[in-house]
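Quick note —
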Amino acid sequence: MTQPEAYHLRVPGRVGAPLPSQPSPRPDQGGCGRLPSVGLQTQAVSYRVGSRALVDDMSLELLAGEVLALVGPNGAGKSTLLRLLAGDLLPSEGEVRPHGLPLWAYGVGALAKQRAVMPQSTFLGFAFPVLDVVLMGRHPHVDGRDERPQDLEAARRAMERTETLDLVERRYPTLSGGEQARVTLARVLAQETPVLLLDEPTAHLDPRHQHATMALARTLSDCGGAVLAVLHDLNLAAVYADRVGLMADGRLMSVGPPAEVLTADRLEAVLSIAFAVTRHPTADRPLIVPMPTSRVQPETSAPVTASESPSRP
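Predicted structure written out below.
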């Protein structure tokens, strides 16, 4: 993608701070930007609202070097679990342990250097420029100082990877839903954490950007990162995830390789719709096709006969 002219000029509003047009070498990262090996665990975690358990006795490990996809119906507890993993919610029972330490052992700034979170939607009360939104991901690193050259460079790298360089001079509210999602992902990448927690990162994207986003997640995990993504597209989970966790009613029903978890019987039992699962034509992965007839049939009245059908005017 051709970089906009603004990348060869001064950044608007930042006197003397040019946004780098080319990345400088990072010798600690090799060819792929290798991240520290770090994981994240839950140990018998539950989260209750009143008498209802939104997450119920969940034990799960997110490994360094993997993409773990969480799938399941609406209300299964996927987003709640992600917020527990992020430390945005405190568990009613059990413990979340980033990098082997309990969440309470981390200060806010230290935790922000361990994990970055992409929520389902991002509301901004002001019309921030896109660059400012991406640079919000650098807050854990700047300690209240003005952005340094390496922060602007991190923003440039993140925008390049998410194909948002051409949006640098736009205001965030003027973007489409898909463009906002990609800018939010760029903010998450600019935070440069070893753990990424992505809540429906492909929901607003066209097919090309859906695959580009998941391929990027795959690349980050191949470089040592740990990526958890909540997905509704079962085929994206099948193609890009190392492991899939199937959730229902706040519980983890199954977790393992896509071919073991994404079977017709398991999916039908959880999602209440029939599936045909075949082999993907170009990848050694399952291809999941929902069938047009639901397993749970709605009640219908007797069919209308030809003589009873209304005539056209």
